[in-house]
Amino acid sequence: MTKIILSGCNGKMGRVITRLVSQDKDCEIVCGLDINTSVANEYPVVASLENFNGKADVIIDFSNPENTDKLIKYCKDTGTGLVMATTGLSDAQLSSLDDLSEYVPVFRSANMSLGVNLIISLVRKAAAALEGDFDIEIIEKHHNQKIDAPSGTALMIADEISDELRDKPEYVYDRHSVRKKRSENEIGIHAVRCGTIVGEHEVIFAGNDEIISVKHTAMSKEIFAVGSIRAAKFISDKKSGMYSMKNMM
Ligand SMILES: NC(=O)c1ccc[n+]([C@@H]2O[C@H](COP(=O)([O-])OP(=O)(O)OC[C@H]3O[C@@H](n4cnc5c(N)ncnc54)[C@H](O)[C@@H]3O)[C@@H](O)[C@H]2O)c1
Q1: Atom 3 in ligand 1: which residue has the minimum CA distance?
Q2: Of residues 157, 179, 119, 199, the one with CA closest to residue 171
Q3: Which spans in the chain are helix H?
Q4: Do the strands 241-243 and 27-33 form a parallel or antiparallel pair, or are they unpaired?
Q5: Cα–Cα distance measured from residue 173 to residue 195, given in angstroms and rounded to the nearest whole number
Q6: Active-site residue, from 3, 70, 146, 190
Q7: What pLDDT does 137 receive?
Q8: Using an 8 Å Cβ cutoff, are 143 and 198 in contact?
Q9: Are 228 and 62 in contact (CB under 8 A)?
Q10: 117: Cβ below 6 Å to ligand 1?
Q11: Taking the model in full, what pTM does it have?
Q12: What would the pLDDT profile of 213-237 be if each residue is shown by its tens digit?
């Protein structure tokens, strides 16, 4: 039985995870963490983990980067594993997560869906095969409540493509401020925010008179919740280290 602290338990993702874990006999939520403690849950909810005296195997975090430093300290002090799903972390926070992985198992993915991680392996292959002949652009679309842009997933896809390219690309986010042609060696990354779109990521490889497009569409938030619960179970008996979807798949 994997014992979980759910950070951001009263948010959109937190509520989906609460429902799925309540139907899962292999894990339980022993405590919720949220600055909003006004929602009634079947488990205790605290605004700070200083008020939790129990013990958990893993924290699943879908909250906000403002919470990240405290979580990292808590995990290091208590030996609790961490599934970090919150996006928009700073470089310093990413490096603190690397440090933490020397003490406890840490699983991080800006996108917990199996499908997105599959398209990453496809676009890596495409990038390696098409380098130099095709322009690469990434378009991501999300609901109008999303705060960070571009999405953590779009950046993750760009980093994975970059990893395959011999000539390291420049990421270009904003074309309106500079009037010049695109260079060969760039990846354009574009964010669309509207309505209730759960998440769409499309990678376009455009060459001379031919276009290849690889696209993933998330139809519900459940795919991320399922992936994060699997990740929590996956790292619950692992030794310290940094884990990702690649390890789990
Ligand atoms: N990795 C993935 O697959 C994936 C998928 C979906 C969302 N996300 C990310 O997860 C995060 C949460 O997404 P959401 O849609 O559930 O957002 P949300 O705004 O609905 O929920 C966030 C919750 O965290 C709480 N919170 C905010 N700041 C806090 C703090 N300092 N301490 C404790 N609790 C705090 C809020 O009160 C809220 O209940 C975002 O960063 C989002 O981009 C990641």
Answers
A1: 111
A2: 157
A3: 12-22, 68-78, 91-100, 114-130, 152-164, 222-236, 245-248
A4: unpaired
A5: 22
A6: 146
A7: 98
A8: yes
A9: yes
A10: no
A11: 0.82
A12: 999 999 998 999 999 999 999 999 9
